[in-house]
Structure prediction request, 331 residues.
Amino acid sequence: MSNHIIFELHGTRYAIEAKAVQTTFRLPELSAAQDLPHYFVGLVNLHGQVLPIVDLGLRFGHPPQPYRLDQSVVVLSQPQTGWQVGVIADVLLDLVDLPATAVEPYVELDGALQRPPQVIAGTVRWEQTVLILLDAPALLRLILRAPTEIDHTAISPHPFVALDAQELNTLRSRTRQLAQRLEPPATDGHEYVLVRIGDNRFALRLESVCEISHLGASTPVPCCPAHILGCINLRGAILTVLDIAPLVLGRQIRDYREVLIVRLGEQRLGLAVHEVLDIREYPTQALRPFSGQAFGHTHCKYSLHDDSGVADVLDLDALSRDGLLEVNEQV
Prediction:
C-alpha cells in the first residue's frame, strides 16, 4: 500500500490515501453555502479559490455538533475534474505507510451506524486500534453526487462552540492566512534527496546537502538532548549527528545506516537516516502545501507527491529557528 493519512471523526479512526489529499489545515471560519446538500456546511477561501467544506459526520448520519478550534480540514482532490472538497476531521493523527497485509474485509454490524459501504475499502490494523479504510474516489463521487432534493436557500454555517476573544482572533487569523495567495516557486523545479526514517519518507532540498555518507559508529555526547545521536569523524572533521526522529515522528529510532551532511548557516551537521531512496528533480506540480501544524508539529510546509507516495519536505531552517537543532543544550 501507499502512504495514508490517518484521522479521527466522532470516535472512529479512518485512513485515506495521501495521494488523494491536496493539503490539510486547521478549521477556519466558514462562509454560508447555497444550493448545496445539508452536509456541505460552509465555504472557505483557500488561496483565492472557493473550497466547499463537508461534514462527513452529517453525511454518515451523525447529528450536527458545534465545531471546535482544534479540528482540521483534509482537502480531497479529483485531478480528472479539478474538483476539491474539504472534509472536517476531529483529529489528524499521522501520515504513515500502511502494509497491504494489514487490510481485512469490512463488516457492517446490524444496528451500527450506517456508512455507505461503497466508500469503504476495508479495515486496517494500526498500532492498537482498527482503521476504516476509505476509498477516496468513491467517497468523492458520493459527496459530489447531486441529491434529488436540496434547499435553495442560503445555509448558515454550523456554529462553533463558545469562543473567547483570543480564540476568536485565532480563528479569524487562520481565515486570513488561508485566503492569501501562494507565491509560486522561483524556478520550474528543484532537486531533492529522498530518505527513509523508520517507515516514513522525507525529502530535503539537494542544495542544503553537502555530502551523503555511510554512518559508522558514533561517539555519544554527554549532557545533550536526546535527539543528539553523537559525533563522527569525517575525514578529520568532527561532526555532530542528529536523530531527528524524535522531532518529526515523536519517538526515537536507532539502527541508522546513512548520514546526510547538511549546512545550517556556518555549521555543518549530520542527519541520520535509515536509507537514501533517490536524488531527483521534481516539477513544481509535485510540490503541494502541507500543514504540519495540523498534526501537532511544524517540521514541514510542503509535501512531494510521486508514483511511490508522499514525502514530507523537511524545513531545516524552521527546525533551526525553533532551537530544535541546538547541540549545546544542557540536560
Remarks:
- The two ends are 41 Å apart (CA to CA).
- The chain has a mean pLDDT of 79.
- The chain has two domains: 3-179, 189-321.
- The chain is about 10% helix and 45% strand.
